[in-house]
Specification:
Length: 313
């Protein structure tokens, strides 16, 4: 296991790549007020902080919450030109309760705008121009959006990196959706609680995290799999080997969006051609920073994201 005291330097992207978060935009309705979220939005935001062109491909309602979402994303530097407006269905919301350890529980509204993602010429063009596309299982709960996500991934150029960020929520998943998504992905990211559940759904034995993750790499011919372990870091496995990071001790603000930040930083380093040790280091540092703040899209202080990350650990 690698030393938790080892520092990393995040080198900002020397060329801006198009990084797409594909799926849901929603508002987390927290006890102390609402926060903009949704894994694709969080992912795109952190990608932008790291110097790439973070883009959200999603759908909002023609309502006050939808307008506010687009305005806030644009203010944060996230591309919103690919956010569709639905004339019928409302902007997505989630009722969130946070426990004493800062861990969130979600109650996700159904039949909302992002359940009706529409395949359009503009999205076809975006797919072809993208360098990385991150998608999850939640936005595939409805047939319309599931079909659109599959079309988007199929229209991407062959060199685009496809990331499946599992994100099991409530009952909005099935073995078929999970297996099909892994087959479409180059990288799969899931957490230590989701891994044994997925192995069971696939009818596979779960002996330990390393053996199970390695089985999924071989079964779906993945380039990389990541198992996050909450405050205990993460495991990365590819065809060349594995790396385990112990994580960082921090004062928790809340854990909302920390996993999405981890994914964004992981993909950033992957596109830079970094070894898995550096991917793991940067991803854990970014996830810890977001978890140390309140909300999924914290704004760096005056010193910028480099300074923020340098104070983690």
């Amino acid at each position: 296991m690698r030393s938790p005291s080892r520092r990393c330097v995040v080198v900002m992207a020397d060329q801006r790549r198009k990084i797409v978060g594909l799926g849901e935009i929603l508002w987390d309705m927290l006890p102390n007020g609402k926060q903009l979220g949704g894994a694709p939005s969080n992912f795109a935001y952190i990608s932008s902080l790291l110097g790439n062109e973070g883009i959200v491909a999603s759908r909002i309602g023609r309502d006050a919450l939808g307008n506010e979402a687009v305005q806030q994303l644009a203010k944060l530097g996230v591309g919103t030109a690919s956010v569709q407006a639905d004339p019928v269905h409302p902007t997505g919301t989630v009722q969130v309760e946070v426990d004493h350890a800062g861990q969130p529980r979600f109650e996700i509204a159904e039949a909302v705008a992002w359940d009706f993602l529409e395949w359009t010429p503009a999205w076809q063009y975006l797919a072809a121009q993208s360098d990385a596309i991150c998608f999850g299982s939640l936005a595939q709960r409805a047939q319309t959006s599931r079909a659109t996500i599959r079309q988007f991934l199929g229209a991407a150029n062959k060199n685009a990196v496809r990331i499946f960020d599992v994100n099991l929520r409530q009952t909005f998943h099935s073995p078929e959706v999970l297996a099909d998504s892994m087959k479409l992905a180059d990288i799969v990211k899931l957490n230590h609680e989701e891994l044994p559940r997925i192995m069971q759904m696939f009818g596979l034995s779960h002996r330990d995290e390393i053996a199970s993750a390695d089985s999924l790499v071989e079964l779906h011919d993945l380039k990389l799999i990541c198992v996050t372990r909450g405050c205990h870091g993460s495991l990365l496995i590819n065809h060349q080997g594995l790396d385990e990071h112990p994580g960082y001790r921090i004062q928790i603000g809340d854990a909302i969006g920390a996993g999405d930040a981890f994914t964004a930083a992981l993909v950033y380093e992957y596109l830079q051609g970094a070894p898995i040790t550096r991917m793991n280091e940067t991803a854990n540092r970014m996830g810890a920073w977001v978890a140390s703040r309140v909300g999924a899209m914290p704004v760096p202080r005056e010193g910028g994201i480099q300074d923020e990350l340098s104070h983690i650990g």
